[in-house]
Amino acid sequence: MTKKIGIIVGSLRENSFNRMIAETIPELEPSVEYELISLAELPLYNGDLDRGDGPESVRLFREAIKRADGIIIVSPEYNSGIPGVLKNALDWASTPTKTAVLRRKPAGIVGATPGVKGTILSQQQIRQTLEATQAYVLPFQKMYISQVMDKVDAQRRILTDETTRSYLQRYVQQFIHWIDQVPSLD
């Protein structure tokens, strides 16, 4: 059976560099199925709204994560940290605690930035949040894309830098392998 990977972009900006990276992933490793999981309609997390299935947008978001064999988060770094919209989405995906859709879900993290340091701080915070939800974050593998504006074709919305494409392809292949390893962790 074909694996399904959900891709979550931690930016709402239509021409986000991270969205371009996310949209490139399926062409780098076509052996699996992909679904882009949107954060755009999620309300701010509020425990008062988190009853039953929660708001419709939350229900759909959680179902998309549940359908995926694993998720890859592709996110920028804002002010040396995790974008608020992504943290909000991860909070929605982390409840209810015992049946949260992120619990025991294989997860990978990729990030792109125009800066020279990549998304190191943001990825640390994303990893910390995912680990708190008991997601299985791909260990030892990091995918930081710095100076991204020099590595994409913004008109065609794709990653064009061959070295970065090769690293990203290997990262996705490692993630697919990680999905197969996770059942042995239970």
**N-to-C span:** 21 Å
The number of distinct β-strands equals 8
Percent strand: 15-25%
CATH class label: Alpha Beta
SSE series: EHEHEHEHEEEEH
Mean pLDDT: 94
Poorly predicted regions: none
Sheet having the most strands: 6 strands, parallel
Structure description:
By secondary structure, the protein is an alpha/beta fold. It has a single domain, classed as Flavodoxin domain (Rossmann fold, 3-Layer(aba) Sandwich). The protein has five helices and eight strands. The strands form two sheets. Strands 1, 2, 3, 4, 5 and 6 form a six-stranded parallel sheet that branches. A two-stranded antiparallel sheet has the order 7-8. The longest helix has 20 residues. The two termini are 21 Å apart. The mean pLDDT is 94. One of its GO terms (cellular component) is cytosol. Belongs to the azoreductase type 2 family. This is NADPH-dependent FMN reductase. GO terms for molecular function: FMN binding; oxidoreductase activity.
Short description:
With 186 residues, the protein is an alpha/beta fold. Helices cover 36% and strands 17% of the residues.
What are the main properties of this structure?
Rossmann fold; alpha/beta; 186 residues; single chain; NAD(P)H-dep_reductase
Summarize the topology:
Blueprint: E1 4-9, H1 17-28, E2 33-37, H2 56-67, E3 70-74, H3 84-93, E4 106-112, H4 120-132, E5 136-137, E6 143-145, E7 152-153, E8 158-159, H5 162-181
Parallel strand pairs: 1-2, 1-3, 3-4, 4-5, 4-6
Antiparallel strand pairs: 7-8
GO molecular function, one term: FMN binding
Protein name: NADPH-dependent FMN reductase
GO cellular component, one term: cytosol
